[in-house]
Amino acid sequence: MNTLHKNTFQFDYFSDNFIAFEKDFYKYANINVPLTFLTDDILEHMVSTKNDYFRINAKNCKDNRDHYFIFRKNFVKENKSIILFEYVCHKAQSELKNL
């Protein structure tokens, strides 16, 4: 992720919703890399694909099912050039209708 994107797109790191995201991520993900080292890649993926979610495929999940982590984009009131990704919820493949 380039410097411009790092300063423009961010997770709402110090919020209850980000703590909920961390808990859900570790509950389902079977990845040996801490979430801290993946956040830039996750943001870059969501920004480049213009999606408000990302998927962890079944082979990287504890229950061998695809899992989706869904976010809402919010502008920061004090600085409209910053977009925060606020965690909304987690869905398993079987729970999705259309994403």
Strand proportion = 25-35%
If strands are numbered along the chain, what order do they take across the biggest sheet?
Answer: 1-4-3-2
Q: Rg, please?
A: 14 Å
Mean pLDDT: 89
- Tell me the major beta sheet: 4 strands, mixed
What is the end-to-end distance? Answer: 25 Å
Series of H and E elements: HEHHEEE
What is the tally of beta strands?
4
Number of helices: 3
**Helix/strand class:** alpha+beta
Please give the domain count: 1
The rough form would be described as: globular
User: Which blocks of ≥5 consecutive residues have pLDDT under 50?
Assistant: none
Helix share of residues? Answer: 25-40%
Characterization of this structure:
With 99 residues, this protein is α+β, with helices and mostly antiparallel strands. The chain has one domain. The protein has helices at residues 3-8, 16-28, 39-49; strands spanning 9-11, 53-56, 67-76, 79-92. A four-stranded mixed sheet has the order 1-4-3-2. The chain starts with a helix and ends in a 7-residue tail after the last strand. The mean pLDDT is 89. Pfam families: DUF5960.
Short description, anyone?
With 99 residues, the chain is α+β, with helices and mostly antiparallel strands.
